[in-house]
TrEMBL record:
The keyword Transcription applies. This is WRKY domain-containing protein. The keyword Transport does not apply. Pfam families: WRKY (PF03106). One of its GO terms (molecular function) is DNA-binding transcription factor activity.
DNA sequence: CGCATTTGACCTGCGC
DNA sequence: GCGCAGGTCAAATGCG
């Protein structure tokens, strides 16, 4: 684990067990992988925010799904086929982070048990069906939950 | 003027 | 079958 980064205690959110501090050096993701998910060797980490935030990317791998369901923790859960789902929790003053892609907002929704609305974004690139959801954590608005769905079919 | 955002309405899946 | 909650649509509005 890179000493310059801070992994905070588990979130109550079952799909977000750790927090990555923004504006820190990129994580040593190989150490991170070993430390947190030794049983899911096929899982890979990918940069999702221009190098200052990292998240699990779980390819279509049923073993990963089983593991996360059993332990009720983990960063992400997979979907069938080519879809992938990435969820992570960041400490940030703004919901929208520049991850290199261009997003178009298409919806906002008040969520039950959370006074903060959830925002829905779609990749604005033609033919790219990637979506993301952004919402602030209920107990601590300093934290933002971001969920990516799908894979980009183009470069940032 | 063209494109992005806002926001209420509508759609859909799920639990009871 | 019904109601609720989450997700998406699309018309209106704003902005460069």
């Amino acid at each position: 684990m890179s000493s310059s980064n801070t992994i905070l205690p588990a979130s109550p959110n079952p799909i977000c067990t750790h927090t990555v501090e923004l504006n820190s050096d990129p994580l040593d993701f190989e150490d991170f992988l070993l430390e947190t998910h030794t049983e899911t060797a096929s899982t890979t980490l990918s940069p999702v925010n221009g190098g200052c935030s990292w998240a699990w990317e779980v390819p279509g791998n049923s073993a990963c799904v089983d593991y996360m369901l059993q332990t009720n923790e983990g960063y992400a859960k997979t979907m069938e086929g080519e879809d992938s789902k990435i969820a992570f929790r960041t400490k940030s003053g703004v919901e929208v982070m520049d991850d290199g892609y261009k997003w178009r907002k298409y919806g906002k929704k008040k969520i039950k048990n959370n006074p903060n609305p959830r925002h829905y974004y779609r990749c604005s690139m033609q033919g790219c069906k990637v979506k993301k959801k952004v919402e602030r954590e209920r107990e601590d608005v300093k934290f933002v939950i971001t969920t990516y769905e799908g894979k980009h079919n183009h470069e940032p």
